[in-house]
Amino acid sequence: MTKEILKNARAGMDKAIEALKKDFTRIRTGRASVSLLDDVKVDYYGTPTPLNQLGTLAVPEPRLITIQPWEKKLVSEIEKAIFKSDLGLNPSSDGQLIRIVIPPLTEERRKEMAKQLKRLGEEAKIAIRNVRREANDAVKKLAKDKEISEDDGKRIEKEIQELTDKFVAKADEVVVVKEKEVMEI
Length: 185
What we know:
- This protein is α+β, with helices and mostly antiparallel strands.
- The chain has helices at 2-25, 75-84, 107-144, 150-183; strands at residues 41-44, 47-50, 55-61, 64-69, 91-93, 98-101.
- Helix 1 (2-25) packs parallel to helix 4 (150-183).
């Protein structure tokens, strides 16, 4: 029973870290990454369709993303969708291939992004602490129902706290790495 609580707590905390990493892929650094376009939806015959389902996305250079649509008539629709996406990107095309040059970030924009990264990191730590609270509540319930001894309850709560500390440190580490990436010119 207690192993299940620890296993669930670890899984919940892992999910918080994975969600943080996924959120970070959407934050534009000075480098090109096709994950920047993950949320871009293109009007494809009246249906909002993810961009990666309408063409081949590539990063041939560190500051360039190319999109080769599978249908030529989609070029203008894809360009419109990227303009509307609020990513601050300016696509250009030759009628067949769309090129997106990733401009270098200004110092002010980098500092703004660093704040956003810290906020997302804090949200991940809150999620981790919520998992800790749920696990501790489950342990307290077992102790109250006399399914485990009070000493076992304290020992498990200590293990849950150690797990929490480990995952909070991991979230901080992920933020520091991404922040370093954003701040480099």
